[in-house]
Amino acid sequence: MAKEKKLDQHVTEYKELAEKHHDSRRMLDEKQIELESKLADLKAELEQQQHAALLDLSDDSLKKDAEIKKEIADTEMLLATVKDRKQKLVFPAEIKAKRDEIFEKVKREAVQEYDDRLPALLEEISEAKAAYIEKLVEYHNLKHGVYRKVKDTCAEVGKTNLETIDLPTIKEVDWHNRSHHSASGHKYIVSEFDVEQALTQGKIDTFFTR
Q: Any idea of the CA torsion for 147, 149, 153, 154, to the nearest 10 degrees?
């Protein structure tokens, strides 16, 4: 059983076929320009010849006119043939079929890659979410551990009147402040906007890429 060709092999074959088609078109264009230029020169030469030999009815003069006219006719025929070929040089069915085959194959491969990678990626997202939430809980415990430690120590030495305990002031984290890139809410909170940017536009806030 023949081994199925890879996508890049199909693309390479398509490009080779398309390049041959484009080369043919290019050569016909170049040939047309060449013949049009030659035709213009011949017509100018004929006009000059006829003007110079207007009263010369010698066989050589008449023969010269005939030769130029024949060359003009031959060139016009070649030019008409080139133009006819250009009109008939449509995109070959073989190339179109190859392009359609590539399109169907890349769709299958892209979907398969998505299906293969999705479960592991979702698991990583789940783990990252759990780790993130655990760190927020860790922050909560850290903050309240300050007060708990002070209160527990006061209780050990008999200072049980909580209203008279001078609890220490600690640095508060303003989780909801997103006014600038250095703001805590911008640095440490994953907002709906952050999620929306990532899911719908594939973008990460510039702050997170620093």
A: 0
User: Is-contact 8 102, C-beta < 8 A?
Assistant: no
Q: What's the CA gap between 133 and 147, in Å, rounded? A: 22
pLDDT in tens, 74-124: 999 999 999 998 888 776 777 788 888 888 888 988 999 999 999 999 999
Over residues 159-190, the pLDDT tens digits come to 767 666 677 888 888 888 888 878 888 888 88
Q: Cα(180)–Cα(61) distance, rounded to whole angstroms? A: 92
Tens of pLDDT, residues 4-58: 678 788 788 878 888 888 888 899 999 999 999 999 999 999 888 888 777 677 8
**Per-residue CA distances from 30 to 4, 33, 88, 122, 142 (Å):** 40, 5, 17, 57, 79
C-alpha to C-alpha distance for 29 and 14, rounded to whole angstroms? 22
Q: Are 80 and 31 in contact (CB under 8 A)?
A: no
Integer Cα distance of 60 and 89 in angstroms: 43
